[in-house]
Every structure is written in structure tokens, then in C-alpha cells.
């Protein structure tokens, strides 16, 4: 796998929902247990033989760069792309000229996960996909009967039920040619790229994550991660 993919971690966000924790510390450097969330990611990638990682940075970027200068147990070669302005979750890829391999793994820097990257890549190859989105299941429980109406009249009464949705887990795999659809120097999210690929008729598959996954987006997530990290096996 490691011979076929380039890895990009998107670490430019401000983490505003986690203020004041992120006032003086970029979100990727917030510690989960004894190390920053982004180091959990890079260590996990290294366990699959990944030795080159590009990180797009913006907010408090010098702290992230300085951190890995002093903490690089696996001797990863880090490349940093500084966004002069916020370019969304994937716009920064247009600034990278070091992507040489056929496939690009893109992921957010605020994810605590032990997802099986080898399994993910094999699934991508087996399905001959142009792009892959990882997902996590999310149940929505409707607590009461649903009343359906039309023109003010009740047309149906449905018993309460549960709906299962696939939520975007913030880890993507692309064939390199997909990146040609990213515009230059514009705020552009990974979801924008996926929507363009859909309109172009590209094959996009879903990889359900059955391993541990947590998006460190809100203070409650950050607190949960501190407990969970004691039990996660990477």
C-alpha cells in the first residue's frame, strides 16, 4: 500500500468550536492522552509503512512544524504546505507539487481512529473506484409517531422508527487525476470535489469504518477521547 499512495493530512483549521482550548494551540496539537491527536494519526500511518506525509497548515502553523521537528519517532519525512488563506478541507492540495503516486489518501487532522488503512486501500483497488469516502453509521431515533399531512389534512400516521445514516468520516482516497477538478486558490471542501466527481460520472465507493473513530470537533468529543484513548488498540 505505502508504495502506491501519497498521504495528505489537512491541519489548517482554527478549531473554533473548541475555544478556548485552541486559542493558543492549533487543534491538531491538542493532546489526547499523552500525545497530540495528529501524532496518533501519523504513528498509525507509520505502522502501515507510510514514511512520507504532507501536512497542509494555516492557523498557528509554526507550532505544528516545530512539534514534529522534536517528535518524529518513526523518522517520517514531513512536507508542509502553508495556506496563505483558508482553502477548505481539500483546496490546499492544489498547492502541493510533491504528489507523485497514483493514489492520494486525504484525511482531517482532528480524527482519533485506528481504521485499517490496508483494508481500506484493498477495498478501493478491488472495486476499481475513482474515489472512496469512509463513513460511520449514525442512528436517528424518532421518539413519537410521525404524522404526514397534505394541504392541512392528515394522510398517514406512522409509528416511531429508527433511521440509519452513513456519515462522512473525513478520510478519502482518490485517484490522482481526480485532483484536476480542484480549483486554484479557492476555498474548496472535499465534499465539493466529491459532488463534482459524481456529476462527471466517476465511480465513488463507500468504506464503512468498523474500527474506532471519533471526530474531535466539540468539547464533549475532546473529553470522550481522553477516556477512550486508554482502551484503543492501534
List keywords for this structure.
alpha/beta, 7-stranded mixed sheet, single chain, Spore Coat Polysaccharide Biosynthesis Protein SpsA, Chain A, about 30% strand, about 230 residues, two-stranded antiparallel ribbon, globular
Structural summary, described in words:
It is a single chain. The protein contains five helices and 13 strands. The chain has 234 residues and is of the alpha/beta class. It has a single domain, classed as Spore Coat Polysaccharide Biosynthesis Protein SpsA, Chain A (Alpha-Beta Complex), CATH 3.90.550.10. The strands form four sheets. A seven-stranded mixed sheet has the order 5-4-1-6-11-8-12. Strands 2-3 form a two-stranded antiparallel ribbon. It has a two-stranded antiparallel sheet with strand order 7-13.
